[in-house]
Amino acid sequence: MSKKLPAVRTARHLRQRITVGGLAVSGAAIVAATTMSLASSASAAPTVLKVTQNTSWGPTLTLKNGDTVYAFSKDARNKSACTGQCAVAWPPVLLPSGQSKADGTGVKSLGVIMRANGSHQVTYEGIPLYRFVGDKHAGQVNGNITAFGGKWHSINPKSPHTPPTKKSGPVGTGGTGETGGTTTTPPPPTTTTPPVTTSTVPPGGGISY
Length: 209
What we know:
Number of strands: 11
Radius of gyration: 25 Å
Helix content: 10-25%
Strand order of the largest sheet: 4-3-6
Largest sheet: 3 strands, mixed
Low-confidence stretches: 5-18, 28-43, 170-186, 196-209
Strand content: 15-25%
Distance between the termini: 77 Å
Shape: globular
């Protein structure tokens, strides 16, 4: 009697973690990301891009729902170098079935390339676009890192090939580097007179580091 092969791997195996260029991604997260990517490509909702004003990164290219999109330094113009586990951590921005081109709200220069699996990936000025599984909410930009042998960066539409520089803002209860919250002025420090210490400097001596 032939043994029936399991349809899915064991839960213990799915709980194993892999390292993505220094970023740990759990097996469960990979399965969830893959499911999300497949569901997105099968959805009838059109893919629409827009420009969002991010408080930390300035003008940022995002999807209609506010999800940040990224560029990969290893990609050539109109050609993706991100496959396999790379495409799990950074799912390509795809067109759903029935949509022939990407739509943009105030965004031009959008294009489409065909990936090896036959899916259609959206590009901006020839740059293949991706999302990042580490962004859990709209407006988050956690993917400006180095992984899979290249650098990833969010996109300023005015300078899409240049990684943006993170802005700094006032520090308050709302968080470091973000505007908002209540800023508290600390009390003046208490001044004390330090004791006087006498030391002898040897001849030819100087400052030691």
